[in-house]
Amino acid sequence: NAGVTQTPKFQVLKTGQSMTLQCAQDMNHEYMSWYRQDPGMGLRLIHYSVGAGITDQGEVPNGYNVSRSTTEDFPLRLLSAAPSQTSVYFCASSYGPGQEYEQYFGPGTRLTVT
Amino acid sequence: GESVGLHLPTLSVQEGDNSIINCAYSNSASDYFIWYKQESGKGPQFIIDIRSNMDKRQGQRVTVLLNKTVKHLSLQIAATQPGDSAVYFCAEKEEDNYGQNFVFGPGTRLSVLP
Fold first, then answer.
1. Is the alpha carbon torsion for B10, B11, B13, B17 positive or negative?
2. Cβ-contact A110, A11 below 8 angstroms
3. What is the DSSP code string of A6-61?
4. Which residue of A has its CA nearest to B89?
5. Of A98, B7, B21, B63, which has the highest C-beta tally within 10 A?
6. Which pLDDT score, from 0 to 100, does residue B2 have?
7. pLDDT tens-digit map of B57-98
8. In angstroms, rounded to a whole number, what is the distance separating the alpha carbons of residues B107 and B96?
9. Is omega for the bond preceding B9 within 30 degrees of 0, making it cis?
10. Backbone angles phi, psi at A63, to 5 degrees
11. Which residue of A41, A90, A97 is in closest CB contact with B5?
12. Minimal CA separation from B4 to chain A, in Å
């Protein structure tokens, strides 16, 4: 199993540009989440999904969109990039409640917005 | 002014000594907690978890202690090794409709001295 994969590893955007961060998992996990991590801070939840076709907002959803058309993929879209979105983005997946909550994280995407 | 969040608390220990990393959580209704390890340039990695109906759980070289009275969690690492150098996060699961919303602490950087 590849686990959780994320692309790209690094990205530089200009203010106002849009892009999609890709996330895929091959563990048949129902739950997937996107977090951002800023220097010296813990991870903050952006959006999450409890299954294909179902998404919900986390703590810091503004400026981001998600969709979940398949169990495997959970892309994160930045609609109009802003310097405040410079961060490291992590995607995570897990089986879900009643089974285990352990989240498996991808390697991260480091995004810089100039 | 400088944000408090920019500088992680740091714990330096001698190789072979025991390490204790502490975490204060915020929600007395949280029912599940996880400790993660994050090495430089990588995503967080699950170490150990504990449910709120327990006060101690042991793994291989690691022990988590939960004190619900003062909302405090600790991670003890026995015989600390150079490979243990990383940032350690605690995460609490807050109750929500889907039971999947985790709140992460800011982290503690563990440095193992030779």
1. negative
2. yes
3. EE-SEEEE-TT--EEEEEEESS--SEEEEEEE-TTS-EEEEEEEEETTEEEE-SS-
4. A42
5. B21
6. 34
7. 999 999 999 999 999 999 999 999 999 999 999 998 876 645
8. 24
9. no
10. 90, 0
11. A41
12. 8
Of B112, B113, B102, B111, whose CA–CA distance to B35 is shortest?
A: B102
What tokens appear for A27 in the block? 């563990």
Q: Which of A42, A50, A92 sits opposite B105 (nearest CB)?
A: A42
Does the beta-carbon distance from B100 to A40 stay under 8 Å? no
pLDDT tens, chain A, 114 aa long: 789 999 999 999 999 999 999 999 999 999 999 999 998 778 999 999 989 999 999 989 999 999 999 999 999 999 999 999 999 999 999 887 655 678 899 999 999 999
The pLDDT tens digits of the residues spanning B26-65 come to 888 888 899 999 999 899 999 999 999 999 999 999 999 9
What is the rounded distance in angstroms from the CA atom of residue B83 to the CA atom of residue B28? 33
- Strand B72-77 with B56-58, pairing: unpaired
Return the exposure string of B12-29: e unless at least 16 CB atoms fall within 10 Å of the residue's CB, then b.
ebeeeeebebebebeeee
Helix (H, G, I), strand (E, B) or coil at B68: coil
Residue holding tokens 């801070």?
A41
